[in-house]
Design goal:
It is built from 10 helices and 7 strands. It is an alpha+beta fold and 250 residues long. It has a 7-stranded antiparallel sheet with strand order 1-2-3-4-7-6-5, with helices on both faces. The termini are far apart.
Length: 250
């Protein structure tokens, strides 16, 4: 198949481990190939499912004590049997340690950015990326009333390079929010808005920019709301769209 050469690299692409030129080429291909976009969506959903499953059990000190007590050497056991129990326990403890270590490594701020990137990829791979289709902010903003527990404003885009495509309701974990999609020079950019209080424990009060997968991301908190701007557009474009939001009411 034509896409076979792309699909063998899909895992590496989603992990953000391809060289920068290949990442840009892959971004372009995924946006134009419905088959690869669907595969990307499936892998993103699987990754998020694995992360959620990994949080269900974290080995405790009591669990370690019970395992060590179970495999304690007894005189009647053969060396081979004792070794087998010890090896099995070591595997269990190692798996638990790696899982909890990975989750701690991806906890907090990094985990939030990873989930935001997943939402962005999943939406763009969807056949219906927006539920309210309109370039008019006065149509999009009222659509969210009664669907999310807060209100927000959208910037005026006149004399800018950005175009509003529409929006949809979304969730970050159990936190409901708004997902808006903009375009600039054929690049799609997602803007997410959530209540900041629900994310304080992981993000604190900070703002900033970073790379997640092959995307540029900007985030900040204002007026009790937390904003994320993410896309494969340049860091300058991400910053310019973020500035349109932060300039409102100033």
């Amino acid at each position: 198949m034509v896409c076979d050469s792309w699909k063998v690299k899909l895992d590496t692409y989603l992990d953000g481990e391809l060289p920068s030129e290949e990442m840009r080429a892959f971004d372009t291909h995924v946006h134009s190939c419905s088959s690869c976009a669907a595969d990307a969506l499936s892998l993103v959903q699987m990754k998020r499912g694995i992360q959620a499953a990994g949080k269900r059990f974290t080995p405790t000190s009591e669990f370690r004590r019970r395992v060590q007590s179970t495999i304690a050497a007894k005189p009647r056991r053969s060396v081979r049997l004792t070794w087998m129990f010890a090896a099995a326990a070591a595997i269990i403890l190692l798996a638990g340690t790696l899982t909890s270590g990975y989750l701690r490594g991806r906890s907090g701020r990094d985990q939030v950015f990873s989930e935001i990137a997943d939402l962005h990829v999943a939406t763009l791979a969807s056949s219906s990326p927006v539920d309210v289709v309109s370039t008019d902010r006065h149509t999009v903003k009222p659509w969210f009333q009664g669907k999310i527990p807060f209100s927000f404003d959208l910037p005026e885009l006149q004399n800018s390079e950005f175009t509003l495509l529409g929006g949809r309701m979304t969730y970050l974990g159990q936190t409901p929010g708004a997902h808006l999609i903009y375009t600039v020079r054929k690049h799609e950019i997602s803007v997410f808005v959530f209540q900041d209080a629900a994310l304080q424990a992981k993000l604190g009060d900070g703002s900033g920019e970073k790379r997640e997968l092959s995307f540029n991301v900007a985030t900040w908190a204002r007026g009790g709301l937390r904003y994320f701007v993410i896309g494969d557009a340049s860091a300058g474009d991400i910053r310019n769209l973020a500035n349109l939001f932060t300039a409102m009411g100033s």
